[in-house]
Model the fold of this input.
Amino acid sequence: MVRLRLKRMGRKKAPFYRIVAADSRSPRDGRFIETVGYYDPMKKPAVLEVDVEKALKWLINGAQPSDTARSLLRKAGVMKKFHEYRMAQRGQSPRAHVAEDMPEDTTVAAE
Done:
């Protein structure tokens, strides 16, 4: 299975991370298929750069993001676009899906 995850780079006590698509059996800093972006938490403010097209390509093809990668992709707006794509594939608009969960009768009877 392909996962989107972080690959640690940099020197001792000064890490930065590349967001990569890698086989789940590969070591954390080992082989990877493609670089999707990078995250540098040491800079103030932290730098996050993601190639949205590459990230969406991998998500659409079934790559599973790690928890941390999912959080970073959410900050970059990729997960929202992926959710909209999935809803469009199902023939629903994202707004209609939220409206389905809302109760129709919201009146309160006063006694």
